[in-house]
């Protein structure tokens, strides 16, 4: 990406092993993330491109001498952030904060919207998929690299469960994934705030019991009416813009939790008496430590318990990635997977 709206496919040198803990993965499927749309709409134009993409499934082509648990030819899922998965922070379940970890597309690590990528800390990052998995499962396996488990993280951090009313703000792929995760955790009632019918219909299929199409004060009033004036025990914010945050503290119940996984496009936000403090609200969330959840989720996908790959409603070739960005930015696509 060279600037807002300027996505190009270019030929670059193949990645090479740089550290003994690296692996090279040939990517089979990748996708465009909602968070990729932030720079797509705001990145200043320049001479130097940003390598894009952080969600992938693929096949291991090379491994460094210190990589354990993997072999050439293994089919793998990569979380959107790499981590050693052994340090104290990783053992606490926050691999996205690993001091030896990092992000695709930054520094000398390429992006995942590509044919090949170097994966640092490969032994701690890559998750092996059983051989011979049905290609029909590829979309759901790809969803485990980020989108589904980002929605899951929101619900997990908020302790969604039996007897809880959950409001999900945002009908993008992460918001719909949060609906699915909250339902899997046993939430009693799930209110989805979204206004795109095709998306909210999938939200209902995933487990939403109510849909609120209104936004702002009108949307807040509708949720409060649905909850008898009490508000929602849990609010999962999957957008990242300030109006969504305002909606979140507007609909949360006293003593409730707001869990944010939409990448915030702001640093300053209300936390005082009229927003959080006055109602004893807990605010949490952050970049999802996908590696902490992926093993269990992989079993659920392979067993047919969940099908998170339904969020992919378009498929394009890598050469057409610029069109994939346009489709998602214009809301004509929910989430686009890329075949490599």
Task: Characterise this structure.
The structure is a single chain. By secondary structure, the chain is α/β, with parallel strands linked by helices. Helix content is 28%, strand content 21%. The chain contains 11 helices and 15 strands. The strands form 3 sheets. Strands 1, 2, 3, 6, 7, 14 and 15 form a 7-stranded mixed sheet that branches. A 6-stranded parallel sheet has the order 10-9-8-11-12-13, with helices on both faces. Helix 5 (147-157) crosses helix 10 (290-302), helix 6 (173-184) packs parallel to helix 7 and helix 8 (216-226) packs parallel to helix 9 (242-251). The longest helix has 13 residues, at 290-302. It starts with 22 loop residues before the first strand and ends with a strand. The mean pLDDT is 97.
Main attributes of the structure:
340 residues, alpha/beta, six-stranded parallel β-sheet, 15 strands, 28% helix
């Amino acid at each position: 990406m060279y600037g807002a709206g300027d996505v190009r496919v270019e030929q670059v040198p193949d990645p090479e092993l740089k550290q003994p803990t690296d692996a090279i993965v040939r990517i089979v499927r990748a996708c465009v993330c909602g968070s990729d749309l932030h720079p797509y709409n705001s990145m200043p134009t320049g001479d130097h491109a940003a390598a894009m993409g952080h969600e992938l499934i693929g096949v291991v082509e090379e491994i460094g001498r210190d990589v354990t648990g993997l072999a050439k030819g293994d089919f793998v899922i990569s979380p959107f952030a790499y981590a050693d998965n052994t340090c104290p922070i990783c053992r606490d379940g926050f691999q996205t904060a690993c001091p030896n970890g990092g992000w695709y597309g930054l520094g000398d690590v390429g992006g995942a919207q590509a044919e090949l990528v170097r994966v640092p800390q490969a032994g701690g990052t890559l998750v092996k998929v059983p051989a011979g998995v049905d290609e029909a499962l590829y979309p759901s396996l790809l969803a485990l690299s980020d989108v589904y488990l980002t929605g899951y993280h929101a619900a997990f951090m908020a302790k969604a469960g039996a007897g809880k009313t959950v409001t999900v703000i945002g009908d993008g792929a992460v918001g719909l994934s949060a609906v699915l995760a909250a339902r899997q955790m046993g939430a009693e009632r799930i209110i989805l705030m979204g206004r795109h019918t095709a998306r909210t219909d999938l939200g209902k299929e995933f487990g939403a019991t109510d849909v609120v199409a209104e936004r702002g004060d009108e949307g807040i009033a509708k949720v409060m009416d649905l909850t008898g004036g009490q508000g929602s025990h849990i609010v999962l914010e999957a957008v990242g813009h300030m109006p969504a945050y305002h909606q979140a503290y507007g609909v949360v119940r006293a003593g409730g939790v707001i869990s944010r996984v939409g990448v915030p496009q702001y640093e300053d936000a209300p936390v005082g008496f009229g927003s959080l403090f006055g109602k004893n609200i807990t605010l949490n969330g952050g970049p999802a430590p996908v590696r902490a959840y992926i093993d269990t989720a992989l079993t659920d996908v392979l067993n047919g318990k969940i099908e998170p790959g339904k969020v992919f409603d378009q498929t394009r070739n890598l050469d057409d990635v610029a069109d994939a960005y346009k489709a998602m930015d214009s809301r004509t696509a929910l989430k686009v997977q890329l075949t490599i």
